[in-house]
Specification:
Distance between the termini: 53 Å
EC number: 4.2.1.118
Function: Catalyzes the conversion of 3-dehydroshikimate to protocatechuate (3,4-dihydroxybenzoate), a common intermediate of quinate and shikimate degradation pathways.
Shape: elongated
Pathway: Aromatic compound metabolism; 3,4-dihydroxybenzoate biosynthesis
Structural class: alpha/beta
CATH architecture of the largest domain: Alpha-Beta Barrel
CATH superfamily of the largest domain: Divalent-metal-dependent TIM barrel enzymes
CATH topology of the largest domain: TIM Barrel
Oligomer: single chain
CATH class of the largest domain: Alpha Beta
Family: Belongs to the bacterial two-domain DSD family.
Bound molecules: 3,4-dihydroxybenzoic acid, magnesium ion
Radius of gyration: 28 Å
Cofactor: a divalent metal cation
Largest sheet: 9 strands, mixed
Helix content: 25-40%
Number of domains: 3
Number of helices: 18
């Protein structure tokens, strides 16, 4: 189906919005009146710009407070409408959106509303224009789609139909099944928006918190299914009022928006992009650093051994159990200090995973490889993290590990780390919803609930995306103090079967663990019963503790190197990420700085 986006959904000038929509692959736009009023371009120039960009103008909006008002008011409305219809003719737009009235003088009189809309449609028809009447969720008397449709039926005019907007329908809890009672040709337009499930006034909710389908809590696909059954064949159009998108770069927002429609269309069986290919593990985490020494010291103290070196690049492979960490001193020019730059995802079908990622608009990264290196497909996540789709020691598939030559080092002592438990990636503040949708749709991971975490200097939000068996877990976090990279760093959480042994080993080898305040342990003692000496051990090492319905969680943190730190995690059935402990950890990290 054709896809469209309202200019109000994107940041910038009208020109910037149109360019972003076109680049992201939209077929058309809804032009929001304010964007037009504020543009220095003439109507003819806007029309030509859209044509050059391959965009149709699918809707002009909104007209407000038209119907069921006193007669003198309505006469003025018709005069205003004539003016707008002339404008639309010059613009080349043939559908106008009319919102249900919020006028203080509007009366609760369906017959009068129908009579007024019929007159408006009569006038519109002279200009070859169609009027799409939309029930605002906060409309004074008309605030449900069924009520709007009753009035349209009563008005009975070929140039009058309805505009359905998923936000207004789903925010009020209306049953979307009734949409099937409207003939498809009377649905003149379909606007789509999702929203997080919040208990608040619908107008505020709508104007500030809408998001793209798949990013909130509404069943937008279910609603569209009802619309498609009517025979509606107009565009799927996104109309998203959102405080974050208003400020973020229009380019990435438009791509995020288009991805949401691709995923929606896939859900509805309208398109079939390459199938989802869920990663089955973390092959490696790659750190870039200008100086390998500090991070190597931490890895060594954690019990990792530098086992191999890339044949052609200054990249070392550090390994312990199934945990592999690459330390790359070549890419550091791009970043300041040590950071987590890439993740290798063990994929059942690396090439297939890359094809899906590309089809869902993930930026494909050039393969930086030498002639005999294994071909590695990589894409960039919204936060810039490089995601490699790879295979480790699997016959028939290119083996990334073969690009590394063993250096013969082995770890001293038994392994205390088993593998990578999870990776925590800090998202730029304006990419949080986009990141969730990206990891869900491109990688096929499941998103858990978003949790709020109090940082002493602001609020953090965090949400985990995982595969079914938990062998891939990524915690996406967004911080309130985005400039504080020391605290809001990325981290690599390492799975251990004995966090006490792993922590002691780290300390004996000269590693420094994050100190946790005594008050925390006094509280733990009040909340849980521990075996003799257990709490003292946690207190001594800075080990944090949590429990959920499934088991217990013990974890501690190394101090931070550049923009990255490590966590040691002992997960005994526990499914979370120690969220109750996160405020204490964040405060301790601020203090340690
Ligand atoms: O918030 C508004 O006023 C508004 C305007 C036009 C729409 O299509 C809409 O859904 C909301
Ligand atoms: Mg709308």
């Amino acid at each position: 189906m054709r896809t469209s986006i309202a200019t109000v959904s994107l940041s910038g000038s009208l020109t910037e919005k149109l360019t972003a929509a076109s680049r992201a692959g939209f077929d058309g736009v809804e032009i929001f009146e304010n964007d037009l009023l504020a543009s220095p371009l003439t109507l003819e120039e806007i029309r030509a710009r859209c044509a050059d960009l391959g965009l149709t103008i699918d809707l002009y909006q909104p007209m407000r407070d038209i119907e069921a008002v006193p007669a003198d008011e309505f006469a003025r409305n018709l005069r205003r409408a004539r003016h707008k219809f002339e404008l639309m003719r010059r613009l080349g737009a043939d559908t106008v959106l009319v919102c249900s009235s919020v006028h203080p003088l509007a009366v609760d009189d369906d017959a009068l509303a129908a009579y007024h809309l019929r007159q408006l449609a009569d006038l519109a028809q002279d200009f070859g224009i169609r009027v799409a009447y939309e029930a605002l969720a906060w409309g004074r008397h008309v605030n449900t789609y069924t009520h709007a449709w009753r009035i349209i039926e009563a008005a009975d005019h070929p140039a009058l139909g309805t505009c359905l907007d998923s936000f207004h329908i789903l925010s009020k809890g209306s049953d979307p099944k009734g949409i099937e009672d409207i003939p498809g040709e009377k649905i003149f337009f379909l606007q789509l928006a999702d929203a997080p499930l919040l208990a608040m006034d619908v107008l505020q909710w709508s104007r500030h918190y809408r998001c793209f389908p798949g990013q909130g809590g509404f069943d937008v696909a279910g609603l569209v299914r009802h619309v498609l059954r009517t025979g509606y064949r107009g565009p799927l159009s996104l109309e998203v009022f959102n405080d974050v998108f208003r400020q973020a770069d229009a380019g990435p927002t438009a791509v995020d928006a288009r991805r949401s429609l691709l995923v929606l269309q896939e859900t509805l069986g309208l398109i079939t992009p390459p199938a989802s290919c869920v990663p089955t593990g973390v092959a490696f985490a790659e750190l870039v650093t200008p100086d390998a020494e500090p991070v190597s010291a931490v890895l060594g103290a954690l019990g990792f051994a530098r086992t191999a070196r890339h044949r052609g690049k200054p990249v070392d492979l550090w390994q312990q159990g199934e945990a592999r960490v690459l330390v790359n001193t070549a890419g550091a020019a791009r970043r300041d200090g040590t950071g987590l730059a890439a993740i290798g995802l063990e994929s059942p079908d690396p090439a297939g995973a890359a094809r899906r990622a590309e089809a869902l608009l993930a930026p494909v990264l050039p393969r930086r490889r030498a002639l005999d290196d294994a071909p590695l497909d990589a894409v960039a996540a919204p936060d810039g993290t490089e995601l490699f789709f790879c295979a480790t020691d699997r016959p028939q598939l290119p083996n990334w590990r073969a690009d590394f030559a063993d250096v013969g080092h082995e770890a001293r002592g038994a392994a205390t780390v088993r593998g990578i438990d999870h990776l925590a990636l800090t998202q730029p503040w304006h990419h949080y919803d986009e990141a969730t949708l990206f990891h869900r749709s491109v990688l096929g991971l499941h998103a858990q609930e978003s949790v709020d975490v109090a940082d002493p200097y602001g609020l953090m939000r965090s949400r985990a995306v995982t595969n079914a068996d938990g062998s891939v877990r990524v915690a996406l976090g967004v911080g309130a103090a985005p400039t504080d990279d020391t605290v809001h760093a990325q981290h690599i959480a390492l799975a251990t079967d004995d966090v006490v042994a792993a922590a002691r080993r780290f300390r004996r080898a000269g590693g420094r663990l994050l100190p946790i305040p005594a008050n925390y342990y006094d509280d733990l003692a009040a909340r849980y019963e521990f075996a003799d000496g257990e709490l003292e051990t946690y207190r001594e090492l800075g080990i944090l503790y949590d429990r959920d319905a499934y088991g217990t969680f013990r974890h501690c943190y190394t101090t931070t190197v550049g923009h990255v730190f490590f966590e040691l995690v002992q997960r005994d059935g526990y499914r979370g990420y120690g969220a109750p402990n996160a405020p204490v950890r964040l405060a301790a990290q601020h203090l340690a700085r």
